[in-house]
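Thread title: Can someone regenerate the structure for this chain?

I was given the following input by a collaborator and told the matching structure tokens would be attached. They weren't. Posting the sequence so someone can regenerate them.
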Amino acid sequence: MHSAGIKEIKNNLSRYLSRVKSGEEILITERGKPIARIVKEGEGNTSIRSALSPLIQKGLVVMPSQGMNCVSPPKIKTDGKCASDMVIEGRR
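Best answer:
Regenerated them for you:
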């Protein structure tokens, strides 16, 4: 895995993307500390799945069968004042 600083990546992005296309991983550093990794599309999920594989086999992790649809819970209608208004009144 090759590592490079942000400035180097920024100045030579096309060259680094070509390396990623050929299968190489690029580690991006900021002041010498790793902050990100560029990997070829599709390879990131494979490594996550392989890392989770032992936990899946033990039944500690269940992978989603489909995309997650985040739905907000329904709003509860109340009569009366807001809690924040009651707190403000209590401070007076």
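The chain has four helices and three strands.
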